[in-house]
Design brief:
259 residues; alpha/beta; four-stranded antiparallel beta sheet; four-stranded parallel beta sheet; 17 strands; elongated
Length: 259
């Protein structure tokens, strides 16, 4: 999972050690590539092993304290979805992330390091929601103020304000046709009339629709983003944030989405 909450006691790291034929340096003894035989592909519990017998010995530590979280872990080179559980008790819930460092050494002597972030957040307040990503199986799982996490398969299309304004029962019909996510596309400029926005989000929540909140025209305006986020973040049916639309577009700021 990409995050955990304070009432959860166990987490897990997912380690992929897949070889690439396009990036990095050649892997193998004496500079040669590892001979990968697709016919040797197999599954070991949940991990996927693709034709290599070389292994990595892995250690996972907390970067700020040096505390060892997992050690003497061994995985195959060119394997994926290797899951290693760990205890969350030493990670006091907070909004900022914990820095994690992975160190690995192969049987053939090659050394590697990688880093990631671990988030253990305070539980959401009454009537609020939090969503996390399942990095092992895929998918999104929202949770409100009380357990459990429930997977959601988002099913929707872009909605525009005029549709809602012209037909007061538009969202009811939308829900009756099996759609489960309210994704309102803002107009040009800064995009939203906040009074109308509140009314639409209220109705969506009353119908039990999840909310994907769209900031495609304003994600580079930090003041307006702050206004919108503070207005919407307490919604009990908030599922996803939508920032830059088609961020690979040549006219888009490639860094603006991450600010």
């Amino acid at each position: 999972m990409n995050l955990y909450l304070e009432d959860e006691q166990r987490g897990s790291f997912i380690i992929d050690a897949e070889l690439s034929y396009y990036f990095g340096e050649p892997y193998g003894r004496a500079g040669s590539y590892v001979d990968i035989n697709p016919e040797l592909t197999s599954r070991d519990d949940q991990s996927v092993i693709r034709g290599s017998t070389d292994r990595l010995n892995v250690s996972i530590t907390r970067s700020d304290t040096g505390q060892v979280i997992n050690s003497n872990v061994s995985i195959f080179i060119n394997s994926t979805r290797n899951e290693f559980p760990f205890d969350l008790k030493d990670f006091v819930p907070r909004k900022s992330a914990f820095k994690i460092t992975l160190s690995a050494r192969s049987i053939s002597g090659k050394a590697f390091t990688a880093s990631t972030e671990l988030r253990r957040l305070p539980n959401p307040g009454e009537g609020k929601s939090v969503t996390r990503i399942d990095n092992l199986y895929g998918g999104v799982l929202p949770r409100t103020s009380s357990p459990p996490w429930s997977p959601v398969f988002p099913y929707s299309f872009y909605l525009a304000g005029p549709e809602w304004a012209e037909d007061p029962k538009y969202l009811t019909k939308f829900k009756q046709n099996g759609f489960n996510v309210f994704h309102l596309v803002p107009g040009g400029g800064l995009g939203y009339n906040l009074t109308e926005l509140d009314l639409m989000l209220d109705e969506a929540e009353e119908l039990g629709l999840w909310i994907m909140f769209d900031m495609r025209w304003s994600y580079q305006n930090e003041d307006w983003v702050t206004t919108l986020v503070n207005r919407v973040k307490g919604r009990r049916k908030l599922l996803l944030w939508y920032t830059g639309d088609e961020p690979g577009n040549k006219n888009a700021d490639p860094h603006g989405v991450f600010r």
